[in-house]
Design brief:
By secondary structure, the chain is of the alpha/beta class. It has one domain (3-309): Ribonucleoside hydrolase-like (Inosine-uridine Nucleoside N-ribohydrolase, Chain A). It has 12 helices and 12 strands. The protein has a 10-stranded mixed β-sheet with strand order 4-3-2-1-5-6-7-12-10-11, sandwiched between helices. The chain has a two-stranded antiparallel ribbon with strand order 8-9. α1 (13-23) runs parallel beside α2 (43-57). The longest helix has 21 residues, at 214-234. The two termini are 25 Å apart. The model has no long low-confidence stretch (mean pLDDT 98). The structure holds alpha-D-ribofuranose and calcium ion (CA). Residues 10, 12, 14-15, 39-40, 126-127, 152, 161, 167-169, 242-243 line the site of alpha-D-ribofuranose. This is Nucleoside hydrolase.
Length: 313
Amino acid sequence: MSRKIIIDTDPGQDDAVAILLALASPEEIEVLGIVAVAGNVGLAQNAINARKVVELSGRTDIPVYAGCARPMRRTLVTAEHVHGDTGLNGPELPDPQVPLQAQHGVDYIIDTLMNAEPKTVTLCTLGPLTNIAMALIKQPEIADRIQEIVMMGGAYFEVGNITPAAEFNIYVDPEAANVVMRCGAPITIQPLDVTHMIQSTPARLDAIKALGNRSGQAVYDMLTFSEGFDLKKYGWIGAPLHDPTVIAYLLQPELFEGRHCNVEIETASELTVGMTVVDYWHVTDRPRNATYLRSGDADGFYKLLTERLARLP
Ligand code: RIB
Ligand code: CA
């Protein structure tokens, strides 16, 4: 039985790889729809990028929606410095022919959860949590109908990437992250603590390029563009690959390890706003509201990713 998912995303090269991994795995994953959110770049461009990736995969049956154009309270912070001016710099992908759905992405999320059997739809979030939070605020009943929220976001042992304390997805909309972390739905977090282990080394990228298909070439071009900022920043032999770990968790959860604990979001302090405060050692009696993953098997991840990309056009 495949798992039904909605992907909420701000593509971004790593988001694109996550979408491709999901669409290459139809036996295990049924992608119901993709919803764009403002994040890496503005909403309109993220929605265009999501449509480009759907067409790259050949799965033009997958509907793409646009959600919220800015965070709940704060001014949008974007990441062109990492992802390029289009948010998907690297490959030359044609302008998308698949349409953008007319329905607002937040309403699509609400309608899908209200119409599906309870606990049968998983939300995979790859960007700021604005759409999910707004759906929870507009229709609180969906909280009990969500099978699981699997999110890329946060950091604790590896600290922040956009500030010393905060990871980008949480930092962009900390109020939204706070709403989501308190909603009561089962939550699994793929933080920087994991993704910094999942490094796209030259050998791993060369294996993807060697697939010889358009998807492999596009992924190679995407990651060799977006890795530049992180290679310079961290001095590693490979840049961390973030968002595809969300999909890999659905496919092979045994690749990752972590524990159920309390995760809270700092929303007040200007110094640490957006920080995920993780009670990993259970030193408080705060509710254990998330499975916080702390490590991942990089070789196993890239074996899975490369095998699945080989299935695409
Ligand atoms: O901090 C990494 C996250 O921020 C990833 O989702 C990347 O796409 C950016 O959105
Ligand atoms: Ca992202």
